[in-house]
Every structure is written in C-alpha cells, then in structure tokens.
Amino acid sequence: MTATASCVSAARARARSVLDTWGISAEVGDDVLLIVSELVTNAITHTASQDVLCRLRADTRGFRIEVEDQSQAGRVPEQRAADPHSQCGRGLILVDALARTWGVTTAARGPGHLVWAELPLSAPQERPRPAHHP
To answer: What is the pTM for the complete model shown?
Structure first.
C-alpha cells in the first residue's frame, strides 16, 4: 500500500477483517490491531518509503505481524526511551509490552527493513505492568 497516513487505518481495517474471518476474539484482536497500527505508523513516519507491506499470519503457535518498508537508511528501528514531553516515541515500547517477541530483519523485496512481532493465540491472564520511568 502507498505509504501515507491513511494507510494506517487501511492496514488496521484489513487486519480486523482477517481476524474476524479467523474468528479471533476482540481481546486478542485488539492487541494485534494496536501492533499493526504502531508498526505501520513507524514505517511511514521514520522512512522515506513509497510503499509499505503489512502481513498477518497465524499458526498453532500464534500470530506474526510483519511490516516491510523501503528504507535505505542504515538506521535499524529500535526501542528507545520516550521523551516524557513528546507525543511520539512510544510505538516500539507498546509493541514490546504486547508482543511475545519482536525484531527487525532485512526486507526481502529489496532495500528496507522488515519489522515483525509475534503474539500468542490467546490473551495472557494478567499483563505485566510496564516499569514506571519518571
């Protein structure tokens, strides 16, 4: 999809449609949708990509969300401490809190990165509380 602000809601709507087709509960689906939103937002905000590709897969182990960009910058997406006065900079913190694991690899379609996150098929009984940083 074309890397514009509207592609975030389009990716979320497509993911919701897939989750509904798969019969995934709203509780689990909401985490998937939040991660889709954060990864697509990061791809369009922090890269000069013309297009962004978002994939959602499921198997017996869980879900895998992949967002591929066309970034030619050498900088790899990484979690960083959020500026408490900024409205930005918390995307990968949220991904890290919700995902079982996540990472970054080289994009398969040419230059760029593929940022992925994996979640279990069911919601955890109790979420760990993120550490408070004053």
So the answer is: 0.81
